[in-house]
């Protein structure tokens, strides 16, 4: 039986379509778009590096344009999303709590994120901390700094931040909101009222099947090796899941010109697949991506699908960095064509572009120059910048790029 054959460009477009990066949003974004975007990606990875806007806000910007970052915090405090370990620490749609609950009920399997020895050694302190939260309401780890002391005995106790993280991993505490991006912890039953493990929690096997099934949806186009990484699943039978999804018609096998092996397209992308087989399809989005965007967080996938070798260098000593501290991939009309190392100077309202590197095979055209210029300008304006300062960029970009520009 022959399978549909699609171009590499079409394969990229099908994947970007699933990731809500097919066309730019042409209307004003709303608070509902934030929740909708997270539902379409399944997971929004959290990272605290703030040299430009923090990663979760940046991932949403890539899809929504000039939206209000506080909408994410409002979605969290309203309980529309919750935080837990998935790909890494992530914001996750509320309705997916059942997918992750089995991990909370068996935290011993969570590796470094949970220490049974710590839990046992500090059992009384941890019990007292839970009682305190039950009686007095949510807490932050900052509430327990050594400087704060009183005669009540509470502050003298100085519980460790690790108590809170241990209780978070084991699902006894949840993040009820964030203040200045700092977690505020409350009892799980107050954040998820009415939840019943006996009737609502999925078994590990059932949850992992659903996670793989959803990964197929979120990736849009994928090869079998990519499925488990989305939720960082280990020791799962991907082949069996693919057989079930093929049999049910939820996915279809395709071949991609220039790539080896079998690829699969999710049913939600079938209308676009039909278009791809009849004519050329392309993404029209030009934007900067976070290093933790789902499109690039699986470095092997980004390399295979986009021929883009990417790694984040903030953990590399400065002298050994090739591109910069926190480089942002440039997505341009279905291709990853380069990377920008940027820093936001918030007081001065300046976005500094420390360097801009294009991939070796990328030619500089006037449209491409214009598209990248527009993407950087929108990125800067969204963060409140009034000027873009360019330290280093390709000479071919011409006069406008020599030093930067006003917004």
What is this entry, summarized?
The protein has 407 residues and is α+β, with helices and mostly antiparallel strands. Helix content is 39%, strand content 18%. The longest helix has 17 residues, at 366-382.
Strand order of the largest sheet: 10-11-12-13-14-15
| DSSP E strands, number | 15
| Distance linking N and C termini | 56 Å
The whole-angstrom Rg is 23 Å
Helix percentage range? 25-40%
Mean pLDDT: 93
What's the story with the biggest beta sheet?
Answer: 6 strands, mixed
Approximate strand percentage: 15-25%
Number of helices: 18
Q: Helices and strands: which structural class?
A: alpha+beta
Shape: globular
Unreliable residue runs: 151-157
Describe the structure.
With 407 residues, the protein is α+β, with helices and mostly antiparallel strands. It has 18 helices and 15 strands. The longest helix is centred in the C-terminal third of the chain and has 17 residues. It is globular and about 65 Å long.
Attribute tags:
alpha+beta; six-stranded mixed beta sheet; 18 helices; 18% strand
Write the SSE topology:
Layout: E1 5-6, H1 8-18, H2 31-41, E2 44-45, H3 55-64, H4 70-77, E3 81-85, E4 89-93, H5 97-105, H6 116-121, H7 123-136, H8 154-157, H9 161-169, E5 173-179, E6 182-187, H10 188-191, H11 197-200, H12 204-219, E7 221-222, H13 224-227, H14 238-247, E8 251-256, E9 263-266, H15 270-278, E10 286-288, H16 294-297, H17 299-306, E11 327-332, E12 335-345, E13 350-358, H18 366-382, E14 387-390, E15 404-406
Parallel strand pairs: 1-8, 13-14
Antiparallel strand pairs: 2-4, 3-4, 5-6, 7-9, 8-9, 10-11, 11-12, 12-13, 14-15
């Amino acid at each position: 039986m022959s399978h549909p054959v699609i171009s590499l460009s079409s394969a990229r477009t099908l994947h970007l379509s699933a990731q809500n990066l097919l066309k730019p949003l042409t209307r004003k974004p709303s608070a509902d778009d934030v929740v909708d975007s997270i539902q379409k990606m399944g997971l929004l990875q959290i990272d605290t590096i703030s040299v430009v806007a923090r990663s979760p806000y940046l991932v949403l910007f890539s899809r929504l344009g000039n939206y209000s970052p506080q909408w994410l915090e409002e979605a969290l405090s309203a309980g529309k999303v919750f935080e837990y370990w998935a790909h890494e620490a992530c914001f996750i749609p509320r309705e997916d709590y059942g997918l992750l609950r089995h991990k909370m009920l068996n935290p011993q399997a969570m590796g470094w994120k949970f220490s049974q020895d710590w839990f046992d050694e500090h059992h009384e302190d941890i019990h007292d901390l839970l009682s305190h939260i039950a009686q007095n309401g949510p807490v932050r780890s900052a509430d327990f700094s050594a400087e704060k002391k009183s005669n009540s005995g509470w502050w003298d106790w100085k519980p460790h931040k690790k108590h809170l993280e241990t209780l978070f991993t084991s699902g006894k505490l949840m993040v009820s909101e964030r203040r200045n991006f700092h977690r505020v912890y409350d009892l799980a039953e107050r954040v998820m009222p009415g939840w019943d493990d006996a009737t609502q929690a999925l078994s590990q096997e059932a949850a992992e099947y659903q996670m793989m099934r959803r990964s197929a949806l979120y990736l849009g186009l994928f090869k079998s090796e990519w499925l488990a990484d989305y939720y960082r699943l280990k020791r799962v039978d991907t082949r069996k899941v693919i057989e079930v999804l093929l049999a049910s018609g939820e996915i279809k096998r395709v071949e991609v010109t220039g790539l080896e092996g079998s690829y699969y397209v999710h049913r939600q992308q079938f209308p676009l697949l039909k278009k791809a087989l009849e004519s050329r399809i392309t993404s029209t989005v030009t934007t900067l991506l976070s290093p933790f965007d789902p499109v690039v967080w699986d470095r092997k996938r980004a390399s295979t699908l986009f021929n883009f070798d990417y790694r984040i260098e903030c953990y590399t000593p400065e002298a050994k960095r090739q591109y910069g501290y926190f480089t942002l991939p440039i997505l341009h009309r279905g291709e990853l064509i380069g990377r920008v190392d940027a820093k936001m100077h918030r007081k001065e309202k300046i976005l500094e572009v420390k360097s801009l590197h294009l991939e070796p095979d990328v030619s500089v055209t006037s449209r491409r120059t214009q598209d990248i210029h527009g993407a950087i300008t929108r990125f800067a304006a969204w963060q409140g910048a009034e000027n873009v300062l360019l330290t280093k960029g390709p000479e071919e970009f011409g006069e406008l790029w020599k030093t930067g520009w006003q917004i």
